[in-house]
Amino acid sequence: QDLRIGVVGAGLMGADHIARITHRISGARVAAVIEPDAGRAAAAAGNAPGAQTYSRVEDAIADSAVDAVLIATPGQFHLPVLEPALAAGLPILCEKPLTPDSDTSLQVLALEQKLDRPHIQVGFMRRFDPEYAQLRELIASGDAGELLMVRAVHRNPSVPDSYGQSMLITDSVVHEFDVVPWLAGSPIASVEVKYPRRNDLSPERLREPILVLIELQNGVLVDVEMNVSVQFGYQVATEAVFQQGVARIGQPSGLQLWQAGRVSSAEHVSFTTRFATAYDNEIQRWVDAVRDGRLVDGPNAWDGYLVALACEAGVRALDGGVQSVEAADRPAFYA
Ligand code: ISE
Fold first, then answer.
1. How much is the average pLDDT of 134-157?
2. Predicted pLDDT of residue 56
């Protein structure tokens, strides 16, 4: 029997996940679209045969309409959905970030630990991108020697009006804060932000691009160019420098065209296409894990809490200084 998923939030990401679950994922279907905007809810449910609409997650739970919940609202709305879903003992895939700050993430951890095992997977989809997975294997294998440093670029063509300065960290670099420790096998020790010359084409409220320096506990230094006004496309690429070689992922691929005296290749313009395969893998593995009782196959709520701590350091670093990250001890529950 198909897993009945309630998708909470029918914005860009929610609609993308609804299409994915309906057309590309096996073993699951969208049973409910939970969204306060009735027009949006109806439009999204129209793409998911058999889905009911609700304005509140509590009502879908009370109706026993869902077996699991996928939360795709903006981060500040995650906690009020996580609370009733955890209280009902439902498995949860929560889009990033888990919550906007470490205090609320700790509240979530406390609620989850009342259950018999972790129920929350956090939507850091880069871990499911085939190239990121290959790079992680290379690092772990030691085939190119020790990892020394990582150079990352994270570029968006533009951002919506709702995107403010701290979101450079909490909405965007949040991905590097999860994926880099996972790649390198070492937690974040500190974060620093440097400002290059400002791009006059950035929205007036933003001072960017920024250069984020992340030092890991094992001494690996990571620099991230975070740039949200790059104009030409969506580009996420990484170079890893080893003792005996260099590895690159995320370079443009696909059709190369030699025409009219020029060479060109396609570039993504949105994360929905750049990471389409990663999202598909992420949701399929989560569905499989829920169906066979493991519930989580990927980053968990503890990882979400660690990222919230790194984001707090990153936001402080926007005002200067090297900001250290100090985590509590990991409970055995998340071992
Ligand atoms: C957006 O919310 C994402 O999660 C994208 O992956 C990221 O590239 C973008 O900067 C964020 O705004």
1. 98
2. 97
